[in-house]
């Protein structure tokens, strides 16, 4: 079966800038939705709930038609973004 990538291919690989932009947009859109829910709970509770979200699994599922290397890059990026977000909340609580 022929699979189409959602990203432009550069030398047979998805464009890295486009991939990172997609992951960033995916993450920040998800955080916008989650913030609406977490606005009604204490910061510590929001942090503990955010730590339970499997961001890597979610982006992997979203990109399931892409190759493993592309999914790996996306998981790495979304994990980095999630850790930065969690670190900001942790520092706010200190």
Specify the biggest β-sheet: 2 strands, antiparallel
Question: In what range is the share of β-strand residues?
Answer: under 5%
Helix content: 55-70%
Number of strands: 2
Mean pLDDT: 90
Topology summary:
Layout: E1 9-10, E2 13-14, H1 16-38, H2 43-50, H3 55-62, H4 68-93
Antiparallel strand pairs: 1-2
Helix pairs in contact: 1-4, 2-4, 3-4
Short description:
This protein has helices at residues 16-38, 43-50, 55-62, 68-93, and strands spanning 9-10, 13-14.
Describe the structure.
The protein has one domain (14-93). The chain contains four helices and two strands, in the order E-E-H-H-H-H. It has helices spanning 16-38, 43-50, 55-62, 68-93; strands spanning 9-10, 13-14. A hairpin with a 2-residue loop joins strand 1 and strand 2. The longest helix is centred in the C-terminal third of the chain and has 26 residues, at 68-93. The chain starts with 8 loop residues before the first strand and ends with a helix.
């Amino acid at each position: 079966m022929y699979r189409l990538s959602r990203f432009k291919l550069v030398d047979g690989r998805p464009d890295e800038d486009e991939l990172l932009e997609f992951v960033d947009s995916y993450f920040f859109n998800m955080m916008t939705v989650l913030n609406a829910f977490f606005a009604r709970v204490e910061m510590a509770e929001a942090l503990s709930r955010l730590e339970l979200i499997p961001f890597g699994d979610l982006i992997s599922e979203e990109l399931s038609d892409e190759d493993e290397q592309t999914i790996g890059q996306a998981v790495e990026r979304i994990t980095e973004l999630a850790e930065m977000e969690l670190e900001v909340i942790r520092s706010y609580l200190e």
